[in-house]
Write a structure and sequence with these properties.
Two copies of one chain form a homodimer.
Chain A: E1 2-9, E2 16-18, E3 23-29, E4 32-35, E5 42-45, E6 48-53, H1 71-75, E7 80-82, H2 90-99, E8 109-112, E9 130-133, E10 136-139, E11 143-145, E12 155-158, E13 161-165, E14 175-182, E15 185-189, H3 210-223, E16 226-228, E17 235-241, H4 249-253
Parallel strand pairs in A: 7-8, 8-9, 15-16
Antiparallel strand pairs in A: 1-17, 2-3, 3-6, 4-5, 6-7, 9-10, 10-11, 12-13, 13-14, 14-15, 16-17
């Protein structure tokens, strides 16, 4: 059993690159939220993260072991963008993508963690991508497909790559993307489940459902080694081994932070792909070798 | 006292133009939601509506009668777009705007009724506009300003022009825009408060909070003469004069549909504009004479 001891900022200016296999994570733009002037004005934008499959992944055959891939797994074969920032971040986003050798047409899936303007302001840059904005999944062109995402049922995007239902901040349909197998372990890209490292005491005021968000935060801290929050730098989650028996009766009363299943251990979700034209074609090229 | 007798589709292919003073309403793109194939796939996009002030409005001085305008009222001085459709609607949206003589740079305010991908997919076309997406209001550049919008407190955008809090479909923060003084009376642009005319029996399954949405629907039907729904053609609201006394005890038990205050009767909201650079400049030109 382990428990979270503390969190600490991950040092380094963006882009922050966490190599991994089969997926690397690159935090392209760091989110922020800064008071401005008097009267409660806040200048803000959301973090933007790129998930890159290893270069050879796009050459893998569409089906593995005879199992048909879901439409979401097909959409996740190329570069995946998690959140886009607000419209004012357009040029910085394009530059940051170019810096990773990725053009907008290369992105095959855009995940919007929730529908706030500082997170989904640039969806229009990616008309060839499938979209998963909150719980709404659609193929390019606007064909929406149902899926069974829920707090107890993550969606599989690929090996060690999942979408979790993490309600609370924006409402009941916020999502996070969880990536296993990076150099620093499991990375959770969480939108505003966490505003930033050290947001205890103020995140609740920004939450539509603090009780749900508290659950989401606990789940994330139980698995992630790195968290990419919505309005701050990525941060590390530091745990220690914990034996409540060794610490006596008081420790046995403390709620354990068990490490839940790592991404990839659950059964994959089936997503119908009954749209005219079928699933989107694989991404033409990945740009950055991983 | 009056009560709603029925609703009926407003005939005419888009763009559907409802001239008015001081604001005209043009439904640029009609929303739709059509089942496709088997397995529950739906091809969909949201309605897109333009609100145009009379041509002379942009030449009016910034302050009227010594009262400072709120930042939201300043943002509402030029063409206002309500919802943008999904990214796949980009070209149709640009053409439809051009057909009204409006370029994206002319739009001073974009209102997103709620944060679903088929309604806010093209925010990035309007980097010079202020945004009100659900309850989040920001100036161009991403400076977010607080306001007091609530179900009991609409926000004033201009004479006879308001934003209403109409929760339910997307969650607690959905909004609608209500425009008085058109040739057909008061127009309510409601996002998915109404999916389409005749949506009784299925809108609830698409709602995050059906009880809240039922309240929102009743409020809209109590005021609007025309409703622009999210996934269908605009429709008329037909009422008749009603005297419960004349109809006996049973009628007196029926819940009356009183006509609430028309837009413009409530006290205006004060919105601080304490962002560096102040409120945005007035729109450079309106294109279409009203």
């Amino acid at each position: 059993m382990s428990r979270v001891v503390r969190t600490e900022p991950l040092r380094g200016e963006p882009p922050v690159r966490l190599p991994g296999d089969p997926f690397s994570v690159v935090v392209l733009l760091r989110g922020y939220a800064e008071p401005e002037g008097a009267g409660g004005a806040v200048r803000a934008d959301g973090s933007v993260t790129l998930i890159l499959p290893r270069a050879s992944r796009h050459r893998e055959p569409p089906s593995e072991g005879g199992e048909a891939k879901t439409a979401l797994e097909e959409a996740a074969r190329g570069p995946i963008l998690v959140d886009t920032g607000g419209p004012w971040a357009r040029e910085r986003l394009l530059e940051a993508l170019a810096g990773q050798g990725v053009a907008p047409v290369d992105v095959t899936l855009v995940v919007g963690t929730h529908g706030h303007s500082d997170h989904i302001g640039n969806l229009g840059l990616f008309p060839r991508a499938a979209l998963l904005v909150s719980h709404d999944f659609c193929l390019p062109g606007g064909c929406f497909l149902p899926h069974g995402l829920g707090e107890e049922r993550p969606l599989r995007l690929g090996p060690g790559l999942e979408v979790w239902a993490t309600p609370g901040h924006g409402g009941q349909r916020d999502v996070s993307v969880v990536v296993a197998g990076t150099a620093l372990g499991t990375v959770a890209v969480v939108g505003d489940v966490f505003e930033r490292d050290g947001d205890e005491g103020f995140w609740q005021a920004l939450s539509e459902d603090p009780a749900a968000q508290e659950r989401s935060r606990k789940r994330v801290l139980g698995t992630a080694d790195v968290v990419v929050p919505g309005h701050g730098a990525p941060f590390l989650v530091v745990r220690e081994a914990w034996n409540p028996e060794a610490e006596g009766p008081e420790a046995r009363d403390e709620e354990p932070q068990e490490t839940p299943d790592a991404p990839g251990d659950e059964e994959p979700q089936e997503t119908p792909d009954a749209c005219e034209g079928g699933p989107p074609a694989p991404a033409p090229g990945l740009g950055t070798e991983v």
